[in-house]
Amino acid sequence: MTSSEPTSIVVCGAAGRMGRLLVGLGREDAGLRVAGAVEASGHPRIGEDAGVVAGGAPLGVPLVADLSAICKAADVVIDFTGVPAATLTHTRVAVDRGAGLVVGTTGFTAAEEAEMRALAARTRSVIAANFSVGVTALIELVSQAARLLDASFESEIVEIHHHAKKDAPSGTALALGRAIAAARHQDFATAAVLAREGQVGARRPDEIGIVALRAGDAVGDHTVVFGGLGERIELVHRAQSRECLVRGALRAAAWVGRRPAGVYAMRDVLGI
Ligand code: NAD
Question: Which of 131, 226, 233, 264 could form a disulfide with 249 if both were Cys (CB 3.0 to 4.6 A apart)?
Fold first, then answer.
C-alpha cells in the first residue's frame, strides 16, 4: 500500500448492526476500499452482496463465511462479530496474513481478552470498547476527575443499551471503571461491584459500582457519578446514533494501516 492508495478493509460481522454501517459508510470514504465481508457460517445472507445487505447498491463483494479465504485482499480486518471466539479466530488470521486489525467486539472474559491482545500485538491493531471521539474524551475526563477528587467522592457508573446487547455491563462501562481504578491506584477487579441485591451492607468507600440497564433501541449512554457529601459530579456521554462509533472505527482502520506492530487505543488514533 502506498500512501496515496486507499486502505482495503474486510468487515467481519458484516450483516450485523455495526457491520452494515461499516460497509455502508466505509464505501463512501475515499480513503478506504471495502474489499471483503465475512459473516457467521450458516448466516442466511451468505453469498449476497455486502453493499446490498448494507442497504445500498451492489459493491461486488459477497458475504463469505471464512476470513482466511479473502484476507489477502485486506490491509485491515475489522471485527464487530460480538462473538469472542470468532474475534480470536479473526485475530489469528489477520496476524498470519500480516493484515492490520481493528477490534470493536466486547464481552471477552479476562482470559480471552488477554489472549486476543497478546496475539493482536503481533500485528498493527486498534482495540477499543468504544470508538466514539466523545467516549475517548470521557475516559480521559473521568481519569482526571478521579485524580482531582479525593477518595471521599465515591464513584458509580450507570449505562443503558438496546435490548439486544449480549454482554453486561458494557465494555465502555468497564473501561471507565478501569480508568477510575488506575487513576486512584486501585485494583479494578477488587473494587468493581457489578450487582447489589438484598442486605449488602454499607458501601465500601473504595467500591466502583456499575449498573447496566437494557431497554428499547438505546445506542449507549454512560454516566459516571462522583458522589461526595453534599455535592455530586456527573459526567455523561450519550450516543445518539451508531454513526459516531462506526466513523471512529473506520478512522482507526485508516490510521492503523500505516503503523508499526503493536496494540493501540482510540486515544492514540486521535493523538490525545
Ligand atoms: P450484531 O449481533 O448486530 O452483529 C454481529 C454480527 O456478527 C451478526 O450479524 C453475526 O451473525 C456476526 N457473526 C457472529 N459470528 C460470526 C463469525 N464467526 N464470523 C463472522 N460474523 C459473525 O451486533 P452489533 O450490535 O453489531 O455489535 C457487535 C459487537 O460490537 C458487540 O460485541 C458490541 O458490544 C460491539 N460494539 C462495539 C462498539 C465499539 O465502539 N467498540 C460499538 C458498538 C458495538
Answer: 131
Instruction: Note the pLDDT of residue 2.
Output: 57
Marked catalytic residue, from 90, 165, 222, 237? 165
Give the residues across from 16 on adjacent strands.
Answer: none
Let me know: does 150 contact 203? Beta carbons within 8 Å: no
pLDDT tens digits, residue range 249-261? 999 999 998 899 9
Q: Which parts of the chain sit beneath pLDDT 70?
A: 1-3
- Express each pLDDT in 29-41 by its tens digit: 999 999 999 999 9
How long, in residues, is the chain?
272
| Gap between the Cα atoms of 44 and 23, Å rounded | 18
- Active-site residue flag, 163: no
Closest by CA position to 156, among listed 236, 53, 48, 81:
236
**Mutation test of ligand 1: which of 11, 18, 170 has the most ligand atoms closer than 8 Å to its C-beta?**
18
The strand pair at 192-193 and 208-214 is best described as: parallel
Ligand 1 centroid, distance to 13 Cα (angstroms): 6
Q: Name the residue with the closest Cα to ligand 1, atom 34.
A: 106
pTM for the whole structure: 0.93
Q: How far apart are CA 45 and CA 63, in angstroms?
A: 7
Question: Which secondary structure element, helix H or strand E, spans residue 140, and what is its range?
Answer: helix 133-148
Name the DSSP letter for residue 162: -
Pocket of ligand 1 (CB under 6 A): 12-13, 15-19, 38-40, 43, 80-83, 86, 104-107, 128-131, 167, 245
Cell of residue 79, nine digits: 471485527
